[in-house]
Automatic annotation (TrEMBL):
The keyword Membrane applies. Pfam families: RabGAP-TBC, TLD. This is GTPase-activating protein skywalker isoform X8. Keywords: Cytoplasmic vesicle, Membrane, Synapse. The gene is LOC113517007. Its main location: membrane. Gene3D superfamilies: Ypt/Rab-GAP domain of gyp1p, domain 3 (1.10.472.80). The keyword Ribonucleoprotein does not apply. It is a peripheral membrane protein. It is found in: Cytoplasmic vesicle membrane; Endomembrane system; Synapse.
Amino acid sequence: MPSAMLSAVLEEEPDLYEAFPPHVDPTGITILTDSPPGKKAPLKTYEEVQPLLQQGRKRDLKILIRENSWPINSAVRASLWPALCKQHQHGKSMLDGFYWDMVTQVFGTVELPDKPIMLPPFVEATHCLGYHLTRKGRAVADRVVSVLGYACPDITYSPSLYPITAALLHFMPEEECYHCMASLVASKEKMFITQTKLLNEVTWKTVMQIAKKHAKSAAQHLSRLSGAIGPERIYADWQWWILAALPFPHLVRVLDCFFHEGIKVFYRVALAILILFHKHSTNQNSEWYAEATKNGVDHAVDKFCRNMPASPTKLLRTAFSIRALSSQYISRVFIKTEMTLKSKQVITGSRLVRSRSSDNLPTSQSQVNIQMMSHTLTIRERMSEETCKQMLFTLWSWLPVRITMYQPVLLYTTEEHGCSLTTFYVRVEHHEPTLLMIKTCNNEVFGAYCSTRWFERNQKDERGNRQAYFGTGETFLFSLYPERAKYPWVGCSANADGKAEERVAHGSELFMAADSKMITIGGGDGQAIWMDENIRFGKTDRCSTFNNPPLCPSGDFEIRVLEVYGFSGA
């Protein structure tokens, strides 16, 4: 163990065995504190944290969690971790006993089986990390993950799911662990756990892109040391620097923040590891430089993490002191990367090992959803059933992967709800995302996938002014008849050239706008779709945001039908 860690104060507490559940073996757990008692304010108890959770004071809670370096045997996590996970829950709370009903349904009994449990195919056997779980604890983790696989059949590749489950089990019983994982997997507001091979690749490419900008010297140093194998192979293991290589006390402190803030904490910690590795391996006489040149930089980074010279507090301080690395910026890079990888799959056939969700072919659930949508679709009038079906299959292949799993719901149609922008807002504004489909009086069919709630038109900036435009780079335009074409955000093309970190011009980020008089999608040197307050007339031009041609030849159009779909559960 490095000298910096040895210098930390070690506290062997007499109740060490009482600090963890019975399925944890605490004998290998080292308890570290970052400074002698009396130098800092006392650590917060859960009773002091709870009001922030109840009042939804997320920013204050974020700061508190970052600043309180609870030791690994602190009793606070038994209450804190479940409460943090529960705040990301989507939909109704699970009833008491739900998990055990699922266990009985899957295994026929609530007794732990003597034989090994068959894990779902989305798990990677090489990364089923148990940390300090006993043999029984490992069997409990296997069972939780198996029930999750049964309950969430659309998870196709999720190597981080098992180790996060195992980490949770160090501080809570089995049923509570399942509820926590179910909340993280189903979270809509923040991402915690990737669930397809495509998104897994997107995450490491996102880390590589943000490192080039926000840890530039460290990224260049890593690239130089990587030599012929290239940095991509190093970045592909980024999450295992954290989940597999960091000492357990460091990992637990990272997870304190992760369960509140989401995967962006992992991104920041990965960059902090690169920055610290750079600091300790720049000198050609250093042991880490020698390790990298002798055994390869991938091995050196892994070994560096296992022997992390910085304390948990120093590691997190390095991670959170990276300036200008906003959640919005990370999200923008992530979406660009996802869109580019998906387009490469379609155009060239990807080197990704394709999964049921990531290849964008309609799954059995998607086919059911498409069939349901075709029955409610007014714009199908005068089309053959086969033409309508093919049109919808095409549209489905353009949607973000996660959305294709949800059931489409008709929210608004001018045929039934009348031609009023007020009615449109009442029925649509709180749904996210939405799919707008327009049929003109000349029978052209086109529309837009809108990534953000229309309610955002009411949001104000820091100065109290209403924001003219809102939305994200997932928004796209499409034409379905007579031509079929998709027009994604122009920001996605920058990523194809490896320039995801570069900012596009403001005129190319004008996704959605609306007020009491009109709706606009796409701006900058023209409006891709504009509709009046009576939802009767509209116009379409080329715009900078999507670089689209006019979606109908005349440019001006009269609306025959407008239909808006939401997605149940999204």
